[in-house]
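Need a sequence for this fold. Nothing fancy.
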């Protein structure tokens, strides 16, 4: 018997049956989460990479178990796209050369006598973990891309520091991880807007509609179907691309609009 909903697919992606609810917790995230338990034993430090546009929404309850075990530095990445926030962290633009060096004094403050540090880099998908590590390594050692779920396996990368730093740093790049149930849908929408959740499992027209009048936007951009109707899907895609690139200005989504 054919069925509109394939139950095995729902389980695989942990999609909600309620079409309006945003949720994404695929199998590779469960596996990665369990894997981190072993890796954390080998690390001295956690770098927790949050998207500065909504740092509080990026706090994964599943990571709390790790935060009790090792010192944590919170990184407010993509700060070039964000309005100021009261969340305490190190503001960075990881796409800017050498910007990650800003973290080194904080590491030295935490470990004044250590010369070798192994840091685990964690965060929600697409928050810029691999880009930050490449910034430290001064080369593209870790794969990066503007979509969630790019890093699939943990990978060690050594930082390239000047000898005067008297410090050897290793970073463990990890896959972006969400949590099983995005109960707070305001948080879920924020994560969807910043590109932490795969667009193809979202109703992007509904998502964009929470920010702008999508019909007005489609009209202003001239996004029309062959029959002359508004092409809302194309307009929503265009809006998200520009929003994520900061074309509508800096945002703080935790504190509502803009
Ligand atoms: N504007 C801006 N873009 C950034 C910054 N850091 C990373 N990006 C971009 O964000 C996108 C995602 O970066 P990645 O480093 O792949 O993110 P990730 O956290 O490793 O993603 P996953 O491996 O999927 O979890 C890429 O297009 C980066 O160029 C930043 O500080 N500012
Ligand atoms: Mg990555």
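Here you go.
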């Amino acid at each position: 018997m054919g069925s509109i909903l394939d139950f095995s697919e729902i389980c695989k992606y942990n999609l909600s049956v309620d079409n309006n609810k945003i949720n994404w917790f695929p199998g590779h995230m469960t596996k990665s989460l369990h894997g981190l338990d072993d890796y954390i034993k080998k690390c001295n430090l956690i770098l927790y990479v949050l998207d500065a546009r909504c740092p509080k929404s990026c706090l994964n309850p599943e990571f709390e178990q790790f935060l009790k075990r090792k010192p944590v530095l919170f990184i407010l990445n993509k700060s070039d796209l964000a309005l100021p926030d009261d969340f305490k962290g190190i503001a960075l633009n990881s796409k800017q050369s050498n910007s990650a060096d800003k973290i080194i004094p904080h590491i030295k403050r935490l470990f004044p006598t250590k010369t070798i540090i192994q840091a685990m880099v964690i965060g929600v998908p697409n928050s810029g973990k691999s880009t930050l590590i490449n910034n430290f390594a001064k080369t593209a050692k870790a794969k990066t891309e503007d979509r969630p779920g790019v890093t699939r396996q943990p990978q060690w990368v050594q930082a390239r520091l000047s000898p005067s730093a008297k410090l050897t740093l290793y970073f463990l790049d990890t896959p972006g991880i969400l949590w099983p149930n995005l109960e707070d849908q305001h948080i879920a929408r924020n994560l969807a807007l910043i590109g932490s959740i795969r667009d193809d499992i979202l109703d992007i027209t509904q998502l964009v509609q929470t920010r702008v009048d999508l019909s007005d936007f489609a009209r202003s951009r001239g996004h029309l179907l062959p029959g002359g109707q508004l092409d809302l899907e194309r307009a929503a895609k265009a809006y998200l691309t520009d929003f994520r690139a900061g074309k509508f200005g800096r945002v703080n989504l935790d504190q509502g609009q803009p």
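For context: The first helix runs from residue 7 to 13.
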